[in-house]
Structure formats: structure tokens, C-alpha cells
User: Fold this.
Amino acid sequence: MSTAVSTGVMARVPERHAVSARRRARERTMQVLLSAAAFGAATLLVIILGYVIVRGAPALNVAFFTERPLPFGVEGGGVGPAVIGTVILSVLAGVLAIPIGIASAIFVTEFRSGRLAPAVRFAAELIAGLPSIVVGVFVWAFLVRGIIGTYAAVAGAIALAIIMVPIVARTVEEVLRLVPQSLREAGLALGAPHWRVVLSIVVPTARTGIATAVVLAVARAAGETAPLLLTALGNLFFSTDLLKPISALPIQIYQYAASPYDDWHTKAWGSSLVLVGVIALLSLTLRLAIRRGAR
Amino acid sequence: MIRTVERQPGARPVIEPVPTGDVAKRESAVRIEDLSAWYGATQAVGDVSLELPRGAVTAIIGPSGCGKSTLLRCLNRMHETTPGARVAGQVFLDSLDIYWTGVDAVEVRSMVGMVFQKPNPFPMMSIYDNVAAGPRLRGWKMDRKKMDELVERNLRRAALWDEVKDRMGRSGAALSGGQQQRLCIARALATDPAVLLMDEPASALDPIATYKIEELVRELSSEVTIVIVTHNMQQASRVSQRTAFMLAGDDGVGRLVEYGRTDDIFTNPREPRTEAYITGRFG
Assistant:
């Protein structure tokens, strides 16, 4: 009996050996493929960033940040108004969009018993799918041509906010779903009302994820060009008036890049580099603020 | 009033009714009448009636899927937080019918503490804040000194104070599993519940941590009525004075098979199905 069993095992050894060798080979192939993909993605990022730095760096000096754009042929000039405009537009759009986005995500995930929640989620998905130029046309028709009567910073901020709301809502929704149900139960079992559990337990638990969502949305909005062309228009002068046209880095890049002058092309690269920097800075500040606020 | 009395050193405590003139106090702490519970169209608990004595530990035992956790969750109206869940019948805490239309579920939960199967301290809160969470979530107004006292008192009740008193600011998630569960017990006790529900509180813990939890259950039973769900029969016999045995029928509905003094259930069960379960023939 025992001999029979051991012969059986022995007889299967070469075959099992072959199987496990094949399995190891497959494992190695997958590993190589996956690391190649990861490496490819990282390389692409490095190439893009590196190229922007190489082409943009020559344009950078103090005046580039502090001065306004000058006509072609005049030495110097900078993108000061565009930097300030991008910061103003992003912050204003964020102030408008982030609370609405977070609130609707909370509504959809935490108060889903109603019939309204799926409708809200569907609406968010639809808006997220809208091309940004369509949002721009809409705001142009309603605010620029209608209520305000002129191109204005506030119209640009509202257009960016409309683009941000669904991004914030969808990402925050995913993050809130990751909060373990057991924590909600613990809160409810302590005799806390539902809304208290959401605000004091669910949201703080998800705070780093929410921070990421907000940063993503702000970064996305800060880089938008099309809706701003139809709403904020751009401005060659410094302006902080919300009811007047305002400049923004993507608009400035667009205008410089579309020109026939080499100097302006260099300035377009410089502006691109500044835009990347501004977005990185905005993200960092937001992250720090949210991390500190949670303590 | 019912009190646990040690008969002799090392012996398991037994229930002895203590004569008292106060009629209200002699009543059961929890009275369940014809309770049924559903998840959507699926019935999980059918027509359970039970009277749980005050100041004692009642164990609910039974195999997986017998509805014992669902029954427990009906006692503080947590069952209905599951979408589609429904309850029929009555549950009285003292004389309050918690399923009466005028009663708010949040109010009910504030009278009953609950400890879950998996330790679930709030990960973003410190040890201190976890214990203070109940009073704070309910909006109790307390100054810092009062809160410090409350936190210390309840960590002592949960036998955790000595282990954590020097690191109150650390995250509750940094503790070991057993410590986390005792932290959850301290959190549940902090709002002074009359009844403490425990849903397999030691099933995710190692034997030493389990022993500590059982020790704690025995100690706490003098001050709070405890209902503990467990599928560990030794645990039920070690910590409880009363045992309810539940079993799902062929229809999948969990029903009460037998209820009585733990001694009787484990040594002299009336029902053959109880005997089969406690002797390990199924489940």
C-alpha cells in the first residue's frame, strides 16, 4: 500500500517539475511586462517634465514673475498677471466647488436610502463627461453675455468650479466608501445621530483621501484653458478685480505658443514650467493645510 | 435584584436572587417578546421571547447563521441600520418598549453599549479621544477635568488603564488586538449604559486576550447587564449565568430552542437539540 502511494508520487514528480518550471517562467514574464509598463509611465513623466524644464528654464528670471507681458520687440516682460490670475481663479473655484463636491459625495454615500442619491450621482457623472469647452460656452452664454455683461474673473472661476465639482464628488465618494462600515456602526452604537457619525467619524477617517481628491481637482482646474478663453479672457495687465477680465497661465501659454516669435515660444515654455510649479505649490499647501487642520 | 455570589474560591459564580423591596429593580433588564427580524425578504430570527435578568451575564449561543447576532442587534435597534432590514415584536428595556413609534433609535442606543466582533477603535483618534468619543458625540458638556476623570474611570473599568496611562495621546489603532477590544469596551462603558451587548467580543483574539476579556465580563456584570453572543460554548459556560440556545430551522429562520440557567443548559439540557449542540454533535 505504502509502496503504491510512493511510486504514485514519484511517478508524478517529473511532470510536476515541468509544471512548476512553466509557472515560474510565466511569473517572470509577467513581472518583466509589468515593470516595463511602470517604467514606461515613469519615463514619460520624466521626459515631459525634463523637456519643459530644459526649454522653459532660459525664460525664467525675477522679472518673469513680477512683470506684465510686453509687446513683441520690447526686451523683458513676464507673466506676473497670469500667475496671480491662476492663483485667484483656482482658489475661488476651489472655494466654490470643494464644499459642494464633498457635500454631494457625503449625500450619495452616507444617505443613500433616498431615491435622490442615484440621481445626484448620475448628474455628477454627466457633468464629469462634459467637454470643458462646452462648460465654457455655457458660462459664456449665461454669465458673460447675460448676467455680468463682460468677460470676468468670476465667470472663469465658476466655469472651473463646474469642472471641479464632479471630480471632487466622484473621488471623495470612492474614498468614503473605503471607510470601514464597522466604524459607522461603532459611532451609531454609541448613541450618536447619523449626521454626527458622518461628520465626526467618517469624514475625519477619510481626510487624507479627501485631501488627495481636492488636490487632484484643483490641479486639473488650474490647467484648464478652453473654458477660460471664453470666460476670463486673459489680461495683459495686473488685475484682481473679479468683475474684470483676468489673466491665467494656460491662457498666457496659449497666446505665447500661438505667436510666430521665438522669444515668445521660449516664454510659453517658461510659463508652462511656472504653471507646473504653481500647481505643485498649490497641492503642497492644500495637503499641509488639510493635514494640520485635522490635528 | 440579582447578584453574583462566589460559592467557594474558584467556583463559577451562580445567580442568587437578593431580596429587595424595590419591585421595579426586580424586573428583568431586557424583555423580548415575539421578536422576528428580516433582511429584505429573508427572515433571520423568528418569534423569540426571552427575559434577561438585571446585573447578570446572559450568553446567546448557537451555530453560525442561527440569528444570534441579529437578535443582539435588535436589542439596541442596530439591526435597522442595514438597508432593507425589518423587525416585528417588542423589546423592553426596563419598561420602555424600544420599538414603540414614539421612541427614537438614537435614544435607545444611548442607553445600551455595544462591543463588536472585530475591535473597531476609531483609528484617527487617540486612546483618550476614543473613550471620550461617546460623551462628545452625544454633545455632553464637560470640562477637561471631568472628562479626564471619566476617561480614567472607564479605562480602569476595562482593565486597560495601567497599560495605556502613559500613552493616552497615541492612536488607538497602535494597540494590540486584545487591548483594542478593551479600549472598545471602555468606549462603550463611558456613557454608562444600563445594558452592554457583546457580539463575539473575543473571537478575533488570542487565548490570553480572550481570557482577559472573559475576566472583564465577569467583573463588569455586577454593575451592568451583559448580553454576550458567542459560538464558543466554554466561554458561555465560563462567563454567563443564563444561556439561550438558538438554532436555525430548515427554513433558515433562527429560533430559540432553550433558555435557562447556564448550569442547567450545560449539565442537564431539556431539549435533545441543545444536548446535541453542546456535546459537539453538530454546529
Notes: Chain A is about 80% helix and 0% strand. The first helix of chain A runs from residue 2 to 56. Chain A has a mean pLDDT of 89. Chain A touches chain B at residues 112-113, 180, 182-183, 185-193, 196-197, 200-201, 204-205, 207, 294 (CB under 8 Å).
